[in-house]
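R.M. (postdoc): so does anyone remember the format we settled on? I'll just put the structure tokens first.
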């Protein structure tokens, strides 16, 4: 592609849509399951090449960052070599040893040592140290000291605001505060209760627990990985083995709650029931404190929270392939005595369903279901009253709600939290069975079967639109003044809609949370280096310019990585929608 930047161009994306419409019209293809279709789709050269081009764009920026960091380290090392050797214990210097913090140093060689170490710490956070020493062997001797792991923690002068505390935002605020970054989290919803940030009862099959481990405290992480999925492998000799898969099953509200608790334990400032004016200017002359990074993780409707944001993000959409879906949840006392999770599916275009079942013992999950039912009833009653529904229709809705609430209350009574029953209650479990599927006559029968079983407590519907943002970063626009921000970043559902097969949506949100933490850490280190060098008469002015260039590159890398991840998720949502609809013509 030469020097031309690879973007999520609408014309090229339209070509991908047409290719997939054609592929998903093939009767043989429509018999396969979603995973098989994904495998076949990425064998289409145009689709896989686009993904490769996006990854190469990432790599191009990464290589520029590595090259610039190498040049900076080489220049800094000219003034800090003896201090470096003293840090490693090879020379003796009363000013520096392995545990010296190097905070607020005024001597130039120590300022340079601190700057050099911070650049290495940026590389370490991105996971690039090994490649750096391979590509730039002139720094090999520092690698032999293995000193980066031993560098004492350094202050990170950077402020971040995170708007939206769903699965991505909650992990982000925890990860930021875990790394010592000043962060404020905002959400328009309440912390707990009906229609709160933690009330989501939907399940997700999630493989980002390796990311979460770096962003959460130990207590929250251990809670999240409790429900790791298991698969049974049958061998030719007639034996079988139960093995854990690379995915865990999470209830979104529970995962969010755990991440928020982790953030609170680290000391993060979290603001619930927040108004837009709390984090952006909505009135002329409104004061807003300066913030280096504002992260908008407010879900699929993020682009609409502020006028002009949709245009800044360059969002592309395909309304002709939106898909209507339905979901329902069944709960009942479980016969299982240990944590358990599995999946149940029907394969085939339009007929598919995706069901995740787990045996749980947490009363909070039952309360979460109850909160959702309360909110759903209020919503449904408003709709009925607005539409002029008859008395009979309103009474039918009341009766349905009463029956569902009764089932939930029966389970809550079994999980009585009185101290004398606590030990017994912890042994009891309930089956949590969550189902997603396209809305059609075939799947209506499945929902009716769930009703007939008598365990259905929540049902509903939603629409999945196919859309994707070309830009995840705004760092050179008058739009920044609305937030008084140095850079605005977006991620997760804000940039590409998830799909009803619970495939990659929560994982994508975690990817962006991790990218945000890496970005903020890089900005913090660069700010500290710049401040130290600007305070010294011995520093070269071009170093400051190069540091500014490096900061811009970190923004560019976040954006490029976001495009790659968004394209992958967009393909999955596109496949899922075309798999849910009748064959589409091109």
């Amino acid at each position: 592609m030469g020097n031309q930047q690879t973007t999520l161009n609408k014309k090229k994306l339209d070509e991908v849509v047409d290719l997939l419409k054609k592929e998903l019209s093939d009767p043989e293809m429509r018999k396969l399951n979603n995973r098989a279709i994904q495998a076949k789709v990425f064998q289409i050269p145009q689709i896989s090449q686009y993904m490769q081009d996006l990854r190469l764009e990432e790599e191009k920026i990464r290589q520029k960052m590595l090259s610039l960091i190498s040049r900076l380290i080489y220049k800094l090392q000219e003034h800090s070599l003896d201090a470096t050797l003293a840090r490693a214990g090879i020379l003796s210097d009363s000013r520096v040893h392995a545990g010296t913090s190097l905070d607020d140093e005024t001597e130039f060689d120590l300022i340079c040592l601190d700057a050099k170490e911070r650049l290495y710490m940026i590389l370490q956070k991105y996971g690039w140290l090994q490649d750096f020493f391979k590509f730039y062997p002139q720094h090999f001797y520092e690698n032999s000291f293995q000193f980066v792991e031993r560098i004492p923690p350094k202050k990170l002068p950077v402020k971040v605001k995170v708007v939206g505390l769903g699965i991505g935002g909650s992990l982000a605020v925890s990860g930021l505060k875990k790394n010592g970054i000043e962060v404020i989290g905002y959400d328009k919803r309440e912390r707990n209760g009906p229609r709160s940030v933690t009330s989501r009862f939907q399940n997700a099959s999630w493989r980002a627990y390796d990311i979460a481990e770096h962003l959460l405290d130990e207590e929250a992480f251990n809670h999240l990985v409790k429900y790791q999925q298991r698969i049974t492998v049958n061998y030719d000799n007639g034996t079988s083995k139960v093995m854990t898969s690379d995915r865990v099953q999470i209830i979104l509200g529970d995962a969010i709650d755990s991440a928020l608790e982790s953030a609170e334990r680290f000391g993060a400032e979290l603001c619930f029931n927040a108004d837009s004016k709390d984090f952006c200017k909505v009135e002329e002359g409104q004061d807003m404190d300066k913030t280096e990074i504002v992260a908008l993780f407010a879900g699929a409707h993020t682009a609409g929270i502020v006028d002009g944001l949709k245009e800044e993000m360059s969002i592309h959409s395909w309304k002709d392939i939106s898909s209507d879906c339905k979901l329902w949840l069944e709960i009942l006392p479980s016969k299982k005595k240990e944590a358990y999770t599995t999946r149940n599916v029907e394969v085939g275009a339009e007929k598919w369903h995706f069901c995740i079942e787990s045996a749980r013992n947490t009363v909070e999950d039952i309360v979460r279901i109850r909160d959702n039912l309360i909110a759903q009833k209020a919503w449904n009653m408003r709709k009925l009253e607005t539409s002029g529904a008859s008395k009979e229709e309103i009474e039918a809705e009341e009766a349905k709600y009463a029956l569902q609430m009764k089932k939930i209350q029966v389970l809550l009574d079994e999980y009585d939290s009185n101290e004398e029953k606590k030990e017994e209650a912890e042994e009891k479990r309930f089956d949590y069975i969550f189902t997603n599927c396209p809305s059609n006559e075939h799947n209506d029968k499945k929902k009716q079967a769930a009703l007939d079983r008598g365990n259905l407590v929540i049902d509903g519907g939603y629409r999945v639109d196919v859309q994707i943002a070309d830009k995840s970063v705004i760092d050179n626009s008058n739009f920044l003044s609305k937030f008084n921000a140095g850079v605005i970043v977006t991620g997760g559902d804000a940039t590409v809609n998830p799909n009803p097969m619970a495939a990659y949506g929560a994982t994508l949100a975690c990817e962006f949370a991790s990218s945000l933490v890496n970005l903020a850490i890089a900005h913090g280190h660069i700010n500290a280096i710049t401040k130290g060098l600007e305070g010294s008469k011995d520093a070269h002015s071009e170093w400051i310019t190069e540091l500014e260039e490096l900061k811009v590159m970190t923004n560019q890398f976040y954006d490029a990585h976001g495009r790659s991840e968004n394209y992958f998720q967009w393909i999955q949502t596109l496949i899922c929608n075309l798999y849910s609809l009748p064959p589409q013509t091109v």
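R.M.: ...and that's the designed sequence above, right after the tokens. Also worth knowing: The chain has a mean pLDDT of 90. The first strand starts at residue 159 and ends at 163.
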